[in-house]
Structures are given as C-alpha cells and as structure tokens.
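In response to reviewer comment 3 from the previous cycle, which asked for concrete evidence that the modeling workflow produces usable outputs, we include below a single protein chain processed end to end. The sequence was submitted unchanged, and the resulting structure tokens are shown without manual editing.
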Amino acid sequence: MNPLRWLSALLLALACVAGASLWLQRQAAAALRDEIVLLREENRELARLRAENRRLVAAQAPAAELERLRADRAAIVRLRGEIEKLKAKTDETARRVE
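The workflow returned the following structure tokens.
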C-alpha cells in the first residue's frame, strides 16, 4: 500500500475516533444537563420544606408553655376528683340531715 493510502486510512480512523469522542461528550453533557434540572427541582423542594419547617417550629408552643399546660391539666383532673368527693360528702350530709 502506498503512503498516501496509509495516510488517508489513518486520517479516516482519526476522524472516526474524534467523531465518536464528540458524540460521547455530547451524550455526557446532555445527561449532566438533565441531572442539573433534577437537582434544581430537588433544591427548590428542599428550600420549601425548610421554610415550612421553620414556620411550624415558630408556631409550636415553647417547652415551658407546654409544661405549664400539662401541669394545669393535671391540676384540673385532681380538682375534679376533689369536687366529686365533696359532692358525695355533701349528698351524704344532706341525707343525714333529712
């Protein structure tokens, strides 16, 4: 084979390799663009969830307030029990008087 044919074959092979390389790079770039779109959407969702979390935390009653409300509820239950005992005692006393 003469040198011109060798050179032509070599140049054709190099052109094929370069074309394949460019095609692979375009495919990789397209995949990366798609991934960027997905990551941006996830980032927006994450920002929305963080804002909602901050709002919910701000709306939540402080721990001291919750503890005070629990103590009040326990006191109410205890006082209702005392009221029932006093009613029963009053009824018993009223029956004795009659």
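The chain has two domains: 1-60, 61-98. We consider this sufficient to address the reviewer's concern, and the full set will be provided in the supplementary archive.
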